[in-house]
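Recall the central idea of this unit: under ordinary conditions, the amino acid sequence of a chain determines the structure it adopts. In this exercise we apply that idea directly, starting from the sequence alone.
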Amino acid sequence: MSTTSEQLADLSATTLLRFATAGSVDDGKSTLVGRLLHDSKSVLADQLEAVEAASLSRGQDAPDLALLTDGLRAEREQGITIDVAYRYFATPRRRFILADTPGHVQYTRNMVTGASTAELAVVLVDARNGVVEQTRRHAAVAALLRVPHVVLAVNKMDLVDYAEPVFAAIAEEFTTYASELGVPEITAIPISALAGDNVVEPSANMDWYGGPTVLEHLETVPVSHDLTACHARFPVQYVIRPQTAEHPDYRGYAGQIAAGAFRVGERVTVLPSGRTSTIAAIDALGESVDIAWAPQSVTVRLTDDIDISRGDLIAPAADAPATTQDVVATVCHVADQPLSVGQRVLLKHTTRTVKAIVKDIPSRLTLDDLSQHPAPGRLVANDIGRVVVRTAEPLALDSYADSRRTGSFLLIDPSDGTTLAAGMAGESFASAKALPAEQDDEGWDF
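Accordingly, the structure predicted from this sequence is:
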């Protein structure tokens, strides 16, 4: 069984969209998500009955659709979103994975978690309040995570008499700010989540708006990737050596292709050793194929017997990443315990985990105005800052701007395995200038 390049191009267009939502307190984010699920008929009957009963007990005449998403008791009691909740729903046109993320500044790390794999972010704004500090934070986080599509949902238009000038002013302010951060595509949609205007069905109250509804945009936004143009990367997860009578000499390298495509006969380099070989065969689902692409899980066989183990990276010889032991990156600190200069950590990149030291923390980012606080010395929970990390072994690390998968990493506490920070190698924002990496290695023991 073989797969041609034409078939690869056809299959690269996915029917799955991962998206995240974010909004300030009382912007109506949970109501929007609830309305989206309700009006797209993605709510089970017993779920709707439970929401209706809960709403009735609160003295509300109509179902409070926000209760469809705020599942934790604390969330229901306070009327806020605390944890990331993943919702799965589908329409005839596309399948969706929704990460419903918190809006509070103290839950910035939760938003980073939810938006890290998103292809689109929906940022809610209250039409009465316009763009506020938290809105700018959400735009900055989306830009940091290189989310390719951002939707500005201007909610509660019913409370401003569906006035077009109100929407236009908010859309212009947000678009200008987000564009300066390097967000490639911004779509503004006026909505009323409570009344259902422009969420799933077009609004009769805003005939001046000729764009798509929220659901229509989610169904049609392009999320296809030309996988043949990506930097091909294959982190080795497991080495298969049956050594049986049937397969006495079989040596395969199993894992999930992180990016791009690989072909039989292609010349490849194994990192960090730098040894080269040629792909002799690719096994997928028990059959040999001529080509495989991300995110397929496959076994690759090479023409040469090379010392390869878990954590090694296979890449095209003509497009192999450079290896480094000095990682300059932006990190979001997610642990309650601080991250300090000189701290020993583990750095996990794809399937490779190495020892490392936090060599420097040049700056901490203030999301309110994007100013840099120099030399903070440490980062605490929800902080976003620049770090320089020295690793004990070379890493084949891409820039996060080139590959969200192979340009990201985790910093882990070696004593208990706690995740300390999520890192993005390279530039902070698409429009930002790179911070110079510290070159003095004096005093470091590896």
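The helical segments are 5-11, 29-39, 45-57, 73-78, 108-115, 133-144, 164-181, 214-220.
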